[in-house]
Fold Single-stranded-DNA-specific exonuclease RecJ.
Amino acid sequence: MRWKLKEEINPEIVAHLQEVLKVDYVIAKLLVQRGISTFDEARSFFRPSLEELHNPFLMKDMDKAIDRISKAIAANERIMIFGDYDVDGTTSVAMLASFFKSFYPYVDTYIPDRYNEGYGISHLGIEEAFKNDVKLIVSIDCGIKSIGEIDYASELGIDFIVCDHHLPGETLPNACAVLDPKREDCHYPFKELCGCGVGFKLMQAWLEYYKKPLDLITPYLDLVATAIVADVVPMVGENRILTYFGLDVINSSPRPGLKALLSSYKQEHFSISDIVYKISPKINAAGRLEHGKYAVSLLSTNCIETANKLADYILEINSERKHLDQRITEQALQMIVENKEVFNKSTVVYNPNWHKGVIGIVASRLIETYYRPTIVFTDSGDHLAASARSVKNFDVYQAIKACSEYLIQFGGHKYAAGLTLYKDQFEAFKEKFEKVVSESLNESDLIPELVIDAEVDFSVLNPKMIRVLRQFEPFGSGNEKPLFISSNVYDTGGKRYIGNRDEHLYLYVKQRGNLDRSFPVLGFHFGKFYKELDNRRFFNFVYTVEESHWKGSIRTQLFMKDMQLV
């Protein structure tokens, strides 16, 4: 990997913050790097408060949304909550439906079938609403570009409220209210909410309008935190506040569905990483291989027995997902080698038999091996469907948009997108996409980069500093876990392999000049360096500081990201 130290910042600002906070210089430096330079800003960072959430009525059309829902309830109209099949969509639907059902009985839910309907508002969903005499649909995590579908609903006498966080097109849908902080005419102070976050603001507005305490919706923060982490929205501002308190709910009083998903893990405390690796893939698996409605049912139920049965079913689905993901990734890697596509600046692969539900995961896996903007295609009826993933600082959505003349439809974000095209357009699209990528990226962009926060000696890593580091959580985009570099370290003699194929490395290290302090180091995929570290061979390495929970005890260990032999 390429190692890059963050640019030096004004040492006077760092020294001032160090003095007022009474912390180590490195801690003050980390804070300033995150845009925090005063005591009050630091207090808000370390002690998030729900009182700091913005007034939800600052969001454009929020008053209209509350008014239309109020009229629906007053008239005993049926309301449908309509969402996407991924984590953000299913948590959103479960959250909004559970909230409104707590005081109003006529609430339905709808998740489109990934294969029969695809992403977003569907005619099938609208027709299901019409058949069930639904008069109001609240879409969540989708709808901002569903112009024709919402017009169709209007023709059937069904109103829409759109709650979305994706970039709008040139025209907004003709809905009663369009809640999207990314609207150009919306002056809501925080633009980076996920879909579930927008739904939470709707609930917050409802409570404020009817003068109810905010405590009534804090139990839903476990779902909001799960969505924020899964959707990889920036972990700053309101997202960080909501995740901070959401993690508290997950650890103190999680809903039965989340509790059931986590029941097999013998842990007392769950973190952001646990949401990423132990919750999100399982929730996603339902929509990838079966149907997102199972995830909504799991996350909505208040019955432990029902939750356990649904969780068992979803775990079976996830097991199948892992098998498919592994097999298809191996096939794709073989295809890249045979076609020598690694010499391109993009990776575009296609197999008509690959499962549509896992091609996004496969794209991410391919980037782990060949660090390039990647698109994985498979058959979808008469068309080809694809999932795209990107590398750092490359906007794959805009690159796909530049090839839109070949596409039926597309959508997504900077680092992840989906698209469909006619089969006879595949080669032309592939050629154009490679051209767009090649014009934007140079060779160095195709080497993963580690942006390092600070170079530190082991003497700095004292217990007090490590305690303060833990208070930087929750980590995520925009508040990444601090990366450190330390030089001239060596194994003290206790290194060992970890894993069935001696793939990983575990060692205890000391640093030349700081012999009184040693740390355990875990290095995934660094087993190949085992022999080279004999005889106290010095090396420099980049790492994060982690907590290791084992048999009721907590200790500090360093997680190796990269190393260089000296």
About this structure: The chain has four domains: 8-44, 56-313, 340-446, 450-565. Residues 450-565 form a domain with the OB fold (Dihydrolipoamide Acetyltransferase, E2P) fold (CATH 2.40.50.460). The longest helix spans residues 304-339. The chain has a mean pLDDT of 94.
